[in-house]
Specification:
The protein has 447 residues and is α+β, with helices and mostly antiparallel strands. It has 13 helices and 19 strands. The strands form three sheets. A nine-stranded mixed β-sheet has the order 6-7-8-5-1-4-3-2-9. The N and C termini lie far apart (52 Å). The relative contact order is 0.14. The structure holds fe (ii) ion. Fe (ii) ion binds next to strand 10 and strand 14. This is 4-hydroxyphenylpyruvate dioxygenase. InterPro entries: 4OHPhenylPyrv_dOase (IPR005956), 4OHPhenylPyrv_dOase_C (IPR041735), 4OHPhenylPyrv_dOase_N (IPR041736), Glyas_Bleomycin-R_OHBP_Dase (IPR029068), Glyas_Fos-R_dOase_dom (IPR004360), VOC_core (IPR037523). Keywords: Cytoplasm, Dioxygenase, Iron, Metal-binding, Oxidoreductase, Phenylalanine catabolism, Pyruvate, Repeat, Tyrosine catabolism.
Length: 447
């Protein structure tokens, strides 16, 4: 459960596993208007989908509790003192196939004691976790993807230039894990396990399911899966060459400062995708020389370097999810960026009147949902304010409409990235972020 990877995508990924990756040496940004989308299916190893996101924090149960309340993600499993883990507290939240893991180190006192490594996340490093929290505050440590073979993915990646972070380790029951550096202190974690066979844990070996709770679907606000995980880096070309080079991922979309910048700030962005376009990894870099400094640079300064900027969570009904989330905002849930001005919604009928009903458009305005579309579908999106102390990581909630296609067996599914990433809304987002930053600055000046 919680690992809904269709068998056919696994088979397709395996089939394409030994294709040669495209040459990324000549990578150059061309901008949204000149970019031609193609899927060369150049993955260097089979990548089946996102598996989980791990946050490193100072106290796992409290941080997880806030995310659980804010996002409607019940606690699903744990590995901590109660399960015999003396080294770290790890709490897993789950909503449909979205899995967020929160991990914090315990004190170092048991370091002389021996413990079966099977009860731990083997790559966990107490000193590194402490340093991570001190340097970055709350942040994502690992973007985990399910691969066919975590050892093979590691060796292929390293042989194509990936910097190793943790060598392959067997977790028992056929599970394996390995890690390579992604950007900053963030790792790309490879997880592999059998699709069927013996009784498998719902997450990873060593974790105990939390069973004495109400039906998780009753607690959910409708969030279904991770759509994309975005990083901010100092130098996009270097980062794209590095990640595309060892994964073989292809370029799915790109935006340059002219496409998305407002008068006062800008960025360049590239979206990398696996063969199935189910793992979408956009990366942004700041563009300098504008009147106001880039919000990507502000992130890099406050985060102490590169890191995950936002996680886009997909829901089947963004209006329902938003009503639930907004009801919790005043009580410790997540707050949202200011809504766009009424003029934005006055134009909405022209842009999306053929897809959304009058009632839906009215609710989008009431809830502050942004609407965009590309040549294939429609994207409904909204952004939270930064969720931690620093103006760094935030959450995006999205619903994609359209792009339904059938697989070889006639089953319907939605193509990845349907409706785009909100290019038309980028400028709206930056305007609202900039207004937020200005309001903070005004407070500092009057303090
Ligand atoms: Fe996004």
């Amino acid at each position: 459960m919680g690992q809904a990877i269709p068998e056919e995508s696994e088979a397709a990924a395996k089939k394409n596993g030994d294709s040669a990756a495209g040459d990324v040496e000549d990578f150059k940004l061309v901008g949204y208007s000149k970019f031609l989308r193609a899927n060369p299916r150049t993955d260097r190893f089979p990548v089946l989908g996102f598996h989980h996101i791990e946050f490193w924090c100072g106290d796992a149960i409290n941080t997880a509790g806030r995310f659980s309340f804010a996002l409607g993600m019940p606690v699903a499993a744990r590995s901590d003192l109660s399960t015999g883990n003396l080294f770290h507290s790890s709490i897993l939240l789950r909503s449909s196939s979205l899995q967020f893991l929160f991990t914090a180190p315990y004190s170092d006192y048991p370091s002389s004691q021996t413990q079966s490594p099977k009860s731990l996340i083997p790559s966990f490093d107490s000193a590194a976790a402490r340093r991570f929290s001190a340097d970055h505050g709350l942040g994502v440590r690992a973007i985990a993807v399910r691969v066919a073979d975590a050892a093979a993915a590691f060796h292929v990646s390293v042989s194509h230039g990936a910097r190793p972070a943790f060598p392959p380790a067997e977790l028992g029951l056929g599970f394996a894990l390995s890690e390579v550096e992604l950007y900053g202190d963030v790792v790309l974690r490879y997880v592999s396990y059998p699709s069927s066979g013996c009784v498998l844990p719902s997450f990873l070996p060593g974790f105990e399911d939390v069973a004495d709770r109400p039906d998780p679907t009753d607690l959910s606000y409708g969030i279904q899966r991770l759509d994309h995980a975005v990083g901010n880096v100092a130098d996009l070309t270097t980062a794209v060459k590095y990640v595309a080079g060892f994964t073989g991922f292809h370029e799915f979309a790109e935006f340059t400062a002219e496409d998305v910048g407002t008068e006062e700030s800008g960025l360049n962005s590239v979206v990398l995708a696996n063969n199935e376009e189910t793992v979408l990894i956009p990366m942004n870099e700041p563009v300098h020389g504008t009147k106001r400094r880039s919000q990507i640079q502000t992130y890099l300064d406050h985060n102490g370097g590169a890191g995950v900027q936002h996680l886009a969570l997909s829901t089947g009904d963004v209006l329902r999810t938003l009503r639930e989330m907004r009801a919790r905002s005043p009580m410790g849930g997540f707050e949202f960026m200011p809504s766009p001005p009424p003029t934005y919604y006055a134009n909405l009928r022209r842009r999306a009147g053929d897809v959304l009903t009058e009632q839906q458009m009215k609710e989008c305005e009431e809830l502050g949902v942004l609407v965009d579309r590309d040549d294939q579908g429609v994207l409904l999106q909204i952004f939270t304010k930064p969720v931690g102390d620093r103006p760094t990581i935030f959450i995006e909630i999205i619903q994609r409409i359209g792009c339904m296609v059938k697989d070889e067996e006639g089953r319907e599914y939605q193509k990845g990235g349907c409706g785009g990433f909100g290019k038309g809304n980028f400028s709206e987002l930056f305007k609202s972020i900039e207004e937020y930053e200005k309001s903070l600055e005004a407070k500092l000046q009057t303090a």
